[in-house]
Write a structure and sequence with these properties.
Two copies of one chain form a homodimer. By secondary structure, chain A is of the alpha+beta class. Chain A has helices at residues 46-58, 120-136, 150-161, 167-176; strands spanning 2-13, 16-23, 33-34, 37-39, 64-72, 79-88, 105-108, 148-149, 180-187, 195-200. The first copy, chain A, is built from four helices and ten strands, in the order ββββαβββαβααββ. Chain A binds chain B through residues 1-3, 40, 42, 45-46, 67, 69-72, 80-81, 83, and chain B through 1-3, 40, 42, 45-46, 67, 69-72, 80-81, 83. The first copy, chain A, binds a DNA duplex through residues 149-151, 166-169, 171-173, 176-177, 188-196.
DNA sequence: CCAAAAGTGTTCTGACTACACCCATGC
DNA sequence: GCATGGGTGTAGTCAGAACACTTTTGG
């Protein structure tokens, strides 16, 4: 009996909270969609194993990664328990290593069918956690590029919370409470007025108020 | 390599947040203090194992029990990882089964020395979690009897948060926001005016606001 | 000149803080 | 009659919610 580690890797693509899934090659659940994961190797830490999986799929290693919950293994004869992590990345870094045989792909969370290993348990839990952390921490920094417009940031909040937010109140809160700060730069986009660029005052995880 | 489960069992005794510790009989760490725990048995669920440990020490099974965090095992050659749970009980149920060879005892959290297996990691994490849950959930119901005076409840909050609270504001919040409700009963205690008894409007875990 | 998104301020409400005095009881 | 703890109300502040119009730009 061994310990499995799985990682739910999220990004906001096209105004939708999306998660990285792979199409399983081997049995059990061959051909079905699942979260990337595998067995904890001897001598490896849990966070190390989760980071390794993350790097396998995306090539990235310096992103937000946090332990989520530990589940009893369901339906997998190999593992006894499953330690789930979740990771967040900005859409711009959401490139996949498509050369891999298990074909990682981004799938909008709202449009998922059934997954292998009852991985829905993990995703439900992760979405809940992400929503609440959005409210009382600055995690959102890990979902946007270093410089961004307030509208982009608001889009990320709206996609995750699945509700619309008042522009003025959003700006007031996020700037007024010191989560982000204005830069002097602007960006022109299409047929619009140039938009001011902002940055997070801190890009370390921190609890607000 | 196996999976260990440990349980941090808390109660508020004598105005101090206290945790149940055992004195280890076997090696490693023989004679040192540790959290109750053991290996996950084949076919057992994580919560099942935690509940079993809880019952072993206290005889109780119907109390608040929640998964806390999963740690890499430190210093134990047997386990690979450690899944920590925490439990809460009212002081009145804080009877120990002293007939056990490993001598469970309540120890105030503020006055602990070093523990076996680096169990401090678990306690720090648990205390943090308990404090924040006190703010935004009704967990406190699991630390007081069904009927209690507001002063008793306030004492529990103060012991855990390690700060004093204004009596009037506390009453306003806890009653006004519907966490507890007054009963018609009162209780006389010593040389004092009789105090009104209260009860929680819900004794299921719930998130406030 | 039109469409599209950026930007901006005020008012109201509800929660939280700080704070001081009277009352019932047992000794 | 006094010591102990129970019980109560008000005023101020601050954060969050609701809400509409003007500006810049490209086509």
């Amino acid at each position: 009996m061994a310990t499995a580690v799985v990682v739910a890797i999220f990004t906001v693509l096209d105004q939708r909270l999306s998660v990285l899934l792979i199409e399983r090659a081997a049995e059990p659940y061959g051909g079905e969609w699942a979260l990337p994961g595998g067995l904890l190797q001897p001598g490896e830490t849990l966070e190390g194993a989760a980071g390794r999986k993350l790097k396998d799929e995306t090539g990235l290693s310096d992103v937000f990664l946090e332990q989520l919950y530990t589940f009893d293994a369901a339906g997998d004869g190999n593992a006894e328990i499953v330690v789930a992590y979740f990771a967040l990345l900005p859409a711009a870094q959401a490139r996949l290593r498509r050369e891999l045989e298990w074909r990682p792909a981004w799938r909008a969370l709202r449009e998922l069918g059934r997954l292998a290993f009852a991985n829905e348990r993990v995703l439900d839990y992760a979405q809940e956690r992400l929503r609440s952390k959005l409210d009382y921490t600055n995690v959102a920094y890990s979902l946007v590029p270093v410089r961004f417009t307030l509208r982009e940031l608001q889009g990320v909040y709206e996609a995750i919370l699945e509700e619309t937010i008042d522009k003025r109140n959003f700006r007031k809160r996020v700037v007024g409470l010191g989560i982000v700060r204005a830069t002097t730069e602007t960006r022109k986009e299409g047929a619009h007025r140039p938009a001011r660029l902002y940055e997070f005052t801190s890009r370390e995880p921190m609890v607000l108020f």
